[in-house]
Design a protein that fits this description.
single chain, mainly beta, M1 Pyruvate Kinase, Domain 3, 9-stranded mixed β-sheet, 5-stranded antiparallel β-sheet
């Protein structure tokens, strides 16, 4: 088998909205540039995701220069700044944590409220906001944007292929929302990786990614599609009470990464 290789780089400029595939990207402490710096919050300033609003899967995003362009069924195009430096500060909540964000303008608030059918708005995480990775896994004071808990998620193609061989209907990688997809590995070989290098960037594997009802949302319809693949994963990928698929990563260094780069395994887990 050939050496492991980076086959996809994916960012999600808005948490729980659609993906953008890239040929290259810059890896920062918070993760990939532009990944999950925007988020949607309800009237209580609490985060909204596909877990409760599966329709968010239909929010399509495109990057044009310094602008993020949004489209959705039945809606006109909306433009957001790709990077926001000014705005009304607002304390927002994500997974019980509170951090400062910048509110989008009234037009954006009306747009997303109309689409989701509830009063809500977009918020942006500015550079000065400090949201730390879980200290049980952090290297120093690692930060994270509006991802659930870690800067990056990696999934190999072979692991998805193995899962698809176990379920009635094949699903795409989109269900699992990874940032990095790797080819030329054995299924679940990533469970035993501890430190990897892509280009000049070193990354630490923090923990397996625990999965929830979000992976039962069909990204093409924006609707829950039944109990798969969560039900099947629970039969063979349940550890310490959690259903897991993919690996959460923490950057040890920053730099440019490109599709086609080798994924070097610098450290393996030593099983006793």
């Amino acid at each position: 088998m050939a050496d492991p290789e980076l086959s996809e780089i994916i960012v999600y400029p808005i948490k729980s909205a659609s993906e953008i595939s890239l040929k290259n990207s810059f890896l920062e402490q918070r993760g990939l540039t532009h990944d999950r710096r925007w988020m949607v919050v309800d009237k209580s300033a609490r985060f909204i995701t596909q877990r409760t609003s599966p329709k968010m899967a239909l929010l399509k995003t495109k990057i044009f220069d310094s602008t993020l362009r949004l489209s959705a069924p039945g809606m006109s195009e909306l433009k957001l700044p790709l990077f926001k430096t000014e705005g009304i500060p607002k304390m927002v909540e994500i997974w019980g944590e509170r951090c400062e964000a910048l509110l989008a303008d009234k037009q954006s608030e009306s747009w997303i409220s109309e689409f989701l059918g509830e009063k809500c708005n977009f918020v942006f995480m500015p550079d000065h906001t400090n949201r730390q990775v879980d200290q049980k896994y952090a290297i120093g004071k690692n930060q994270v944007a509006f991802s659930d808990g870690f800067p990056l998620l990696l999934i190999p193609e072979s692991s998805l292929k193995d899962l698809n061989n176990r379920i009635p209907e094949e699903i795409s990688m989109k269900r699992f929302r990874p940032n990095l997809v790797v080819k030329n590995t054995l299924p679940y070989q990533e469970d035993n990786w501890r430190v990897i290098r892509i280009g000049e960037c070193e990354l630490q594997i923090a923990k397996p990614c625990s999965r929830c009802v979000l992976i039962t949302v069909d990204p093409e319809t924006g609707k829950f599609s039944g109990r798969e693949p969560l039900r099947t994963l629970a039969k063979y990928r349940k550890f310490n009470g959690e259903v897991v698929f993919g690996q959460n990563l923490i950057p040890r260094s920053s730099g440019k990464i490109e599709v086609g780069m080798k994924v070097e395994i610098l450290k393996w887990q030593i099983n006793s």
